[in-house]
Amino acid sequence: MHVFHKLEEVPTGFGPTLVSIGNFDGVHRAHSCVLRQIVERARQQGAKAMAVTFEPHPVRILRADSGLKLITPTPEKLRLLEASGLDAVLLLPFGRDLSLMTPRQFAEQILKKQLHAREVHEGYNFRFGHKAEGNVEMLAEFGRETVIAHNDPSPARERVLRTFEQKHAPINIQVALPSLEAIKRAVEMKMGVALLPRRCALAELSRGQLSAVKVPQVRLARQLRLVYRRAGELSHAAQAFLAIARHHHPES
């Protein structure tokens, strides 16, 4: 099991992840039940099962005079978490900056951007973010990210939709636009996210206008079409190239 002591230690390519967040003091039966769920589902999806906890315990920072005594010190907690079959544990340093993060900031900056969380499993009374303003309903709402898509149906679009259906995660397409440029501008204006081939946004990515995350589950094979003039004389090189193309694709 990997143990990361801060976000910067999590490798860039680590994930996607299935996450459970909590203090996990004692790692009791309810904890174990949730952890077993994310381990099982992570194995099914080829993802990483991760527990996110805090060091020190938030109460020791927010209410320093509470005299909080822990059931399990950190080394023992890590041993119990490892026994659950997790791939990794992230011990987030709990301090002022983390305590002031809003629920949306925590969900977007840590769960989405840093951990590439595909699922977050929590109990009904889970709270997170500044002043514990976030709950499971809010977390679920953050997960229903608006997707911006092209309004012209295509085989690629259908494959993406089928992939999401197979993962039991319906894609939330709320905006349909007529051109690639319009889609990129809408993403830049923070209207939502879009699933695009990376090559379609190289200029915007290089300028820092957009950010990209790999989604290998919907990787599509590139289709190249050979177009040539039927009439006229072809060079020896062109004739050889056409012969090879016809050999591999006799129907063309």
Describe the protein in words.
It is a single chain. With 252 residues, the protein is an alpha/beta fold. The chain has 2 domains: 2-143, HUPs (Rossmann fold), CATH 3.40.50; 147-218, no CATH class. It has 10 helices and 9 strands. It has a 5-stranded parallel sheet, with helices on both faces. The protein has a two-stranded antiparallel ribbon with strand order 6-7. Strand 8, helix 7 (155-166) and strand 9 (173-177) form a beta-alpha-beta unit. The N and C termini lie far apart (52 Å). The mean pLDDT is 81.
| Mean pLDDT rating | 81
Low-pLDDT residue spans:
none
As a whole number of angstroms, the C-alpha radius of gyration is 24 Å
Largest sheet: 5 strands, parallel
**CATH topology-level fold name of the largest domain:** Rossmann fold
Number of helices: 10
Can you tell me the CATH class of the largest domain?
Alpha Beta
Strand content: 15-25%
By CATH, the superfamily of the largest domain comes out as HUPs
Q: What percent of residues adopt helix (DSSP H or I)? A: 25-40%
Secondary structure topology:
Elements lengths: L1 E3 L12 E5 L7 H17 L2 E8 L2 H5 L11 H10 L4 E6 L2 H4 L3 H12 L2 E4 L6 E2 L5 E2 H8 L3 E4 L4 H12 L6 E5 L2 H9 L13 H5 L29 H13 L4
Parallel strand pairs: 1-4, 2-3, 2-5, 3-4, 8-9
Antiparallel strand pairs: 6-7
